[in-house]
C-alpha cells in the first residue's frame, strides 16, 4: 500500500475578503467557504498548515515585466482615472465593466495567492511535503505584461520557474474548463515544462486557443498538449480521455514534479462553464495523479458557483490527505449555501442551469486521444527527456568552439548543457550535471581537448 502523503496546506484567511465588484463572477469568498468545509471535516489535522508570505514585486518580476508590476503596485480605484493608457495596455478596467477590474486591494490580493503558490513550491523543493495545496492560486490566464480572464499575476508560471531550479522536468496539468493559455505560452519553447490542458474549445470560447494541433514550438515542440472538448462532457467520457493521455505523458516525459490546476468551472452547473462533471469525476483526476507519487503542487483556478467550488476543493483535499469524509456536510458558517441537500456530492445544477447534452461523440474523443498519443510518441528524443539516460561518454566540453570535432549527439549534449546552464539550476541538479561530467571520464591534461570519448 502506498504510504500516506505528507501534505502542506497554504491558506491566508484574508484571501477570501477581496472583492472584484458586484456581479463579477470571480468571488474570492469561495476560498473562505472551501476552507470552512476543510476545517469542518477536520482535514487540517491531516496536513501541515501554513500562512503564506506575501510575494514581493521582485518575485513577480521573474515572469512579469517590470513596467506591469509597477503599474499593478500603483493603481487603485482612486487614481485609475489618471492611468487610462496604461490600463488599456495591461487589459484592466473599471469595476463592473471589465473582466479584470481595478478593485480595492488588487496588489495585496495578488501577493497572497502568488506567495501561497511559491511557498507550496518551496515545500516540495525542500522535501518537507509530497503535496502542497493552494486553493487561492491557479490564475492560469495572466500574461507577462497583461491581465486576462480575471487573472493578474500568473502564480503557476512563477511556481514552475521556482520548481525548475530543483526539478529537471515539470508537468503542468489543467482541468479548468478554459484553456491554460498563460502557462502554455510562458513555456512554449522549452522541453523542461510540459503543459497539458483539457478544456472547451471551439475557436470562440475564451480564451479562443488550445486546439489539438497546438503542440509547442522549437525545443518545446510536442511539450504542449491540448485536449479540446465540446459542451456537456460527462464523467465517463472525461475519464476515458484523461487517464490514457496522462498515463502516456507520465510514461514518456517522466516528470519529476507536477503542478495541477483544478479549476472548478468544469463542474456541472457552473456559471461560466459548459461541462457536466461531478465532484467525484473532478476529484478522480486528482486521485489518479496522486497515484503516481510524484511531488505535486495543487492549485485552484476558475469556478463560479461558490457552493460547488467549496464542495469540490474540500473533496479534493480529502483525497490528497487520504481521508474518508461523510457525504453529509459538516456544520459550517455558510450552512445555508448548501441547501437543500447539505451534502458533499449533490446535484450541482442549479434551477437556472440549462442542461447541455454531451456533444463529445465516442468517435470525436477517440480521434482527439489518438492524435494526442501520436504527438506524444514524437516527443521521444527530446533532449531534456533523454538527459537522465545519457551515457557518460557523451560528455562534452561546454566551452568548445570546435564544431567539426563533435558528432550530432555530442552537439546535442553540448546544447543541452548550455541550455541547462542558462536556467539557473538549483544545487542538486547542478551536482547531477557535474557528476555526469565526471563520470564522462575527462582525461588527459592537454587542455585542448574538446571532449573525451570512450
Ligand atoms: Zn476557467
UniProtKB/TrEMBL annotation:
<dbReference type="InterPro" id="IPR023801">
    <property type="entry name" value="His_deacetylse_dom"/>
</dbReference>
<dbReference type="GO" id="GO:0141221">
    <property type="term" value="F:histone deacetylase activity, hydrolytic mechanism"/>
</dbReference>
<keyword id="KW-0156">Chromatin regulator</keyword>
<feature type="binding site">
    <location>
        <position position="99"/>
    </location>
    <ligand>
        <name>substrate</name>
    </ligand>
</feature>
<keyword id="KW-0479">Metal-binding</keyword>
<keyword id="KW-0805">Transcription regulation</keyword>
<dbReference type="GO" id="GO:0046872">
    <property type="term" value="F:metal ion binding"/>
</dbReference>
<keyword id="KW-0539">Nucleus</keyword>
<feature type="active site" description="Proton acceptor">
    <location>
        <position position="141"/>
    </location>
</feature>
<keyword id="KW-0378">Hydrolase</keyword>
<dbReference type="InterPro" id="IPR003084">
    <property type="entry name" value="HDAC_I/II"/>
</dbReference>
<feature type="domain" description="Histone deacetylase">
    <location>
        <begin position="24"/>
        <end position="319"/>
    </location>
</feature>
<dbReference type="Pfam" id="PF00850">
    <property type="entry name" value="Hist_deacetyl"/>
</dbReference>
<feature type="binding site">
    <location>
        <position position="176"/>
    </location>
    <ligand>
        <name>a divalent metal cation</name>
    </ligand>
</feature>
<protein>
    <recommendedName>
        <fullName>Histone deacetylase</fullName>
        <ecNumber>3.5.1.98</ecNumber>
    </recommendedName>
</protein>
<dbReference type="InterPro" id="IPR023696">
    <property type="entry name" value="Ureohydrolase_dom_sf"/>
</dbReference>
<dbReference type="InterPro" id="IPR000286">
    <property type="entry name" value="HDACs"/>
</dbReference>
<comment type="similarity">
    <text>Belongs to the histone deacetylase family. HD Type 1 subfamily.</text>
</comment>
<dbReference type="GO" id="GO:0005634">
    <property type="term" value="C:nucleus"/>
</dbReference>
<feature type="binding site">
    <location>
        <position position="265"/>
    </location>
    <ligand>
        <name>a divalent metal cation</name>
    </ligand>
</feature>
<feature type="binding site">
    <location>
        <position position="178"/>
    </location>
    <ligand>
        <name>a divalent metal cation</name>
    </ligand>
</feature>
<dbReference type="GO" id="GO:0040029">
    <property type="term" value="P:epigenetic regulation of gene expression"/>
</dbReference>
<dbReference type="InterPro" id="IPR037138">
    <property type="entry name" value="His_deacetylse_dom_sf"/>
</dbReference>
<feature type="binding site">
    <location>
        <position position="304"/>
    </location>
    <ligand>
        <name>substrate</name>
    </ligand>
</feature>
<keyword id="KW-0804">Transcription</keyword>
<feature type="binding site">
    <location>
        <position position="149"/>
    </location>
    <ligand>
        <name>substrate</name>
    </ligand>
</feature>
